[in-house]
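To whoever is on call:

I kicked off a structure prediction for a single chain this morning and the downstream step that reads the tokens threw a length-mismatch warning. I double-checked the sequence; it's 348 residues and nothing unusual in it as far as I can see. Pasting both halves so you can look.
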Amino acid sequence: MIPVSPIAWGPGRTVRILDQTALPADERYRDLHSAEEMAEAIRSLRVRGAPLIGIAAAMGVALEADTPGGAGEEDALARVRAACRVLGATRPTAVNLRWALARMLRRAEAAVSRTDLAAGMRAEADAIAAEDRAMCERIGELGAELLADGATVCTICNAGALATGGIGTALAPVYVAHAAGRRPRVIVPETRPLLQGSRLTAWELTRAGVPCSVIADGAIASRLRRGDVRCVIVGADRIAANGDVANKIGTYGLALAARVHGVPFYVAAPSSTVDPATPDGSRIPIEERAADEVVAWGGHRTGPVGVPVWNPAFDVTPAALVTAIITDRGVHAPAVIADAVQPLVAGG
């Protein structure tokens, strides 16, 4: 069912990633050798998507624990701590990154020897990836129950297999419904400025044999107005305790259009994306990225030199616009999401 695997252990002491900046033209893989190389891959969006960032960071830490040489146990633990700091500074909005690194550090500090440390780091990274795969499957099963046969679904950005360790979050219900022969279709806004919708979501849906149509971001409201979209399903990079949702820029506008046109708006995310320590969306740090992402494309300027640019990578959709949140723990009203998942998050 998974159309592509974006990350795996590579030969020797490496992690192999699918370079998502090269898609859809080139399916290019890279072997990474260190936490620094993984940090660059995360910053540059070669690896992206909140759950996948957490998995990738954990694997990057494991690389440092398994580095050969004459360093003693204390030096090896220091390398792990340094790797957690470097990787933790890459992207501020996705809570899965912080959650995964905290797990890795707890496991490292409990190690009794350097050999135990290296084995433990790899085992913990594998556990994080396996748990994400299982959570994606459960999200898919629960979300598919909301889709009628032949349902048309709208999403934004990419919250599929390219963004997770499994079949995705927002796309997981689509893949489960497709596997069951229920013929879902997907409307894919291009997702400016980096086109994760048209470059990535349309690519993986087409690869999986799921019918989809790409639309311009500016066409979202007009498309929903037609009345044939059954629901919107989006992913999330962080969900606050009150149910406010941070996701790719443009999600808030999609939620507003869905509300006006009476289209249910669902958020699909693993329990690890819920952050009970963040009370509401105003406390979520929003990453701002380089101006060239907006005023340049493919090496060509698309805006005048020196023009001011505001380029937030994410926006916050208020809980009041969210119909329900689909997690591996169930389908919940936004107001109760923190209580619904907190035992799992706290137990990590």
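Update from on-call: the warning came from a stale cache, not from the record. Cleared it. Sanity check on the structure: Confidence is low (pLDDT under 50) at residues 344-348.
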